[in-house]
Structures are given as C-alpha cells and as structure tokens.
UniProtKB/TrEMBL annotation:
Organism, scientific name: Streptomyces nymphaeiformis
Region (Disordered): 300-346
Name of protein: Uncharacterized protein
Extent of the signal sequence: 1-31
Domain of life: Bacteria
Length: 363
C-alpha cells in the first residue's frame, strides 16, 4: 500500500523543509566526520653499537596515516648523549622508504616508520618507539605523499633545509623528516615542521606560527656536528589530501610553542602544544631543536654540533606519550637533548596541526 503525504500535514511540511535545506546548503545532508587514533607497537631496542641505526614501524589497521612520530629511551648516564632520532616518515608497507625521485611518491599510506641512530656512544638501554596517527574521515578518503630531498649537510656544524609542498587544491595534514646514512654519527634531522610555500615564509625556511591557518608544505632540516659525509641526504615529506575534496569545508590550524633550552651538556628539554576542541582534531605534529625564533626568521640550527631530537609524539597536556589505541589525542610533544657539549642559545620547538572539517572557510 502506498502512502501519500498531504501538503498540509506536519510530516509533509517537515520533508519539504528538509529538501529545501539540502538544496540551499550543499553538503548539509550528511555530517562530515574525522576520527583519529594512535597506534604504537612499543619499543624496538637499539642501536647497541656506535654509528649504527635501527628502524621500527607502526601500522594503521583502519584509515590512513596522517602523521606520526617517535620517542626514544636514552638511559640515564653519559651514554645518553649518543642516541638521536634519525627519521620519522610515512611508508607504503612499514618496511621501505620513499627515497627515489622527488614528487608524489605514494598514495593512501597506512604505515609510519621511525629511525633511531647512535653517535660515538651507544647503550643497551637505547630504544625507539614509533607512533602512527590513523585518520578515518568521510571527507578525506585518500591521501598522497610528496617527497623532496637534497644532498647534505656535508660540512661540519652545518645544516640542510628541504621543503615538500602539497599540490594545488589539496590540504596538508602531516609530514616527516629523514637523514641518511646512520654511519655518520653526528648527522640527524634537527627539525620537522609545517610551513608555507610563499614569500612571507621564505618558501619554507620560516616555520608556520601559532594560530596560522592552512599551511601547504612541510620542511625538514638535517644537521651535522663535527662529522663529514659526501653522501649525506636530507628528506622532507608532506602528507596531503587528494584534490577531490571541497576546500570550503576543511581547514587546518597550527599550534606552536617554543621554550628555552637545553643549554647545558647531557641534558634534555620538552615542549608541548595542543589543539582546542573548536579547532578540530590533532592529525600530526612537528618538532625542532633550534637557534630560536623559527616562526619569524629563517631556521637556524643550535650553535654546537650535539643538539638533537629524542622525540616527537602525540601526548597529553604534560607531555606523556599517548598509548596504543588512544583515541582523539589533543597534544603533541617534542623531546630534545643537548648532546655531550654545552649549547647556549638552544630552543625546543613543537607544532600541533589541527584539522576541522565542520567549519572550513573559503580560501
């Protein structure tokens, strides 16, 4: 039996109103959703010998990887100076890296790799824990990885900055950094942060500042101490949406914090930034140890050769890492270390990238 709705009935009026709203407000007929969860398999021990590296990976069982990080155990004695982050990057399978020709190097990545390296000192206490941020969204259904790379740094106490930029019509949702080889013990990424491919940010040399909206690029900075290496490489990775989304319904906001230190030898520092509920979900984050003022001037590395990263990871408000299966993290923490020498004028920097698909704005 068919049911007719009379124009004057309450049901008929409700359906007519719903139809008018659907026509008047495109996209209002369904809710745009973003769900975020943290995946980590725990620590991988090592490297236990000098001038070597280890790799570990976290894998998204659902959704796509939007970002990720690493956290290192370094021990409590002077040997702690030798452990440093060597890379935090998206991966197609959790075992291989995107290192070939620059450009769009992969789509719909679901894995995150973390790399730890040792300098002239190593310890059985060293380990690296990878963290993957897994994104499920009915708006961002596909992603692409853009990679850029450059040779260097090769001279002692120098750095190399590389920027990867998302294609036009897409949204940056995360990024990463990597340096190779591990056999050059003082080589490491000292910065990994969101930025803009525009003159105001010197095309990636100035980081995105607190409250800035819709960065389109990710910068990596490789730093080196007293070592040398003609084959040294620095890689930057940007994780971007594809161009099939409505940009009027998505926006990102950067949250940034910079704190002084570590300045004395064999000490560490942390910095934490977070997303408020009105800014959407935390989808990735970045970290640096720098010479300061990274959001207003070109990036400069800390003055000595030893400062390095020991972590960049999703956390709570006081910097405790989020455990496996943690849903909807709000904060990102950077863990830095001075190495074996004093490093006056060093700063620790952290970025949180917040994604909102309900209150986007015209660009």
């Amino acid at each position: 039996m068919s049911t007719r709705i009379r124009r004057g009935s309450a049901t008929g009026k409700a359906l007519i109103l719903a139809a008018l709203l659907t026509v008047a407000v495109p996209g209002a007929a369904y809710a745009k959703t973003v769900d975020v969860a943290v995946v980590t398999p725990g620590a991988t021990m090592g490297p236990a010998t000098p001038f070597t590296g280890i790799s570990s990976h976290a894998d998204c069982p659902d959704g796509l990887v939007s970002g990720g990080g690493a956290d290192q155990a370094i021990g409590s004695d002077e040997m702690s100076n030798g452990n440093h982050v060597m890379g935090m990057v998206p991966s197609a399978d959790g075992a291989t890296e995107y290192t070939d020709a620059p450009g769009v190097v992969g789509t719909d990545a679901t894995h995150w790799m973390a790399f730890g390296g040792s300098g002239s000192r190593s310890s059985e206490a060293f380990s690296t824990t990878p963290y993957a941020i897994c994104l499920t969204s009915n708006l961002i259904r596909h992603t692409q990885v853009v990679m850029n790379k450059a040779q260097g740094p090769s001279a002692g106490l120098s750095s190399k900055l590389v920027t990867a930029t998302c294609p036009a019509g897409t949204v940056l949702i995360g990024g990463g950094a990597r340096t190779t080889p591990a056999s050059v013990g003082s080589l490491k990424p000292v910065a990994s942060f969101p930025t803009f491919d525009d003159a105001g940010h010197h095309f990636g040399s100035i980081a995105a500042g607190d409250g800035e909206r819709d960065p389109d690029s990710w910068t990596a900075v490789g730093g080196i101490g007293g070592g040398r290496g003609e084959d040294n490489m620095t890689y930057a990775y940007a994780i971007c949406s594809t161009d099939d989304i409505d940009l009027e319904h998505v926006s990102t906001t950067v949250r940034f914090t910079e704190v002084s230190g570590p300045n004395t030898a064999s000490t560490g520092q942390t910095a934490t930034a977070g997303c408020s509920r009105g800014e959407g979900r935390l989808v990735s984050g970045g970290a640096a140890i720098s010479g300061g003022n990274v959001t207003t001037t070109d990036f400069s590395k800390a003055t000595s050769g030893g400062p390095h990263l020991n972590g960049s990871f999703p956390s709570d408000a006081v910097g405790t890492p989020v455990g496996d299966g943690g849903a909807d993290p709000s904060y990102w923490t950077a863990a830095t270390h001075s190495g074996g020498s004093p490093s006056q004028g060093s700063y620790s920097d952290v970025w949180a990238l917040c994604l909102d698909v309900q209150h986007g704005h015209k660009r």
